[in-house]
Amino acid sequence: MIGAKSYYCPFFNKNDQFDRRTFHKLYKSLNTVSEFIGKSISQNQKKDYLFDNVDTTYIDKLLFNSPYVVLVPGSGEKEKFKRWPVKEFANFCSLFIEKYPQFKIIITGTLSEAELAKKIIRQVNNKPIINLCGQVNIRQLTGVYRNAQFVLGGDNGGLHLAKASGGRVVAIMGPTNSALTGPIDAELIIDRQLPGTPWYCREALKKRKYDTYEESMQVPAELVLGKIIKNNLL
Fold it and tell me: In the β-sheet with 129-131, what is the strand arrangement from edge to edge?
């Protein structure tokens, strides 16, 4: 509906942004489509969100079929509060490398997020972490995501892309409502569910600063790795 002056969706209202019991925006939109076309959408169609044209040859050549995990630390420049802190990404890398030395770690993102990846790498004492921010095209990136053991990040477009690529996703979410806008069918969503969260909506955002600190995203790396292990993602 690009260019539309208004968006009609009888299955969505503003309160859904704060309701953890709501169902995903994708399915709300599909229900709207169903109403427009006058027939129901099958369960198979509702699950048909995977990309077909995925290039896995790039990552196979890069790592020679070694196991690896992917970190996606970025978010929109005006939505830095959605990010898991650099310090915790670095702590996670250190813990992960010590426990699982056979795995490689890859960081992905846009070219503008390459410096963010470098900050993480510097805090891990420059251990061999691969920074692919801005270095791969979409087909290559989808292959990177599909073949990963898991893809970890905050509420960002990279995790949605990873899920559509067929990857296994671990999402850390706090200010946004995972039930409404989180990665579809994520393997693991970590949410501290602090009072007052989720708070994110356009109206609330206008009243807050575009800073990086958000209490609900201050999740210890030890807790995240523990949940990943407990959920048999390794």
Answer: 129-131, 104-107, 68-72, 151-153, 169-172, 188-190
Asked whether the bond before 198 is cis by omega within 30 degrees of 0, the reply is: yes
The token pair that represents 113 in the structure block: 């997020």
Q: Where do the domains of the chain lie, and which CATH numbers do they carry?
A: 50-230 (3.40.50.2000)
- What was the pLDDT predicted at 7? 59
Q: Return the sign of the alpha-carbon dihedral for residues 40, 43, 49, 52.
A: negative
Q: How far apart are CA 94 and CA 3, in angstroms?
A: 46
Structure confidence at residue 4 (pLDDT): 59
Cα 122 to Cα 72: distance, rounded to the nearest angstrom:
16
Residue 1 pLDDT: 46
Mean pLDDT by 10 residues, the chain (234 residues): 60 85 86 81 78 88 93 92 96 96 96 96 89 95 96 96 96 96 95 95 80 92 98 96
pTM higher than the cut 0.85: yes
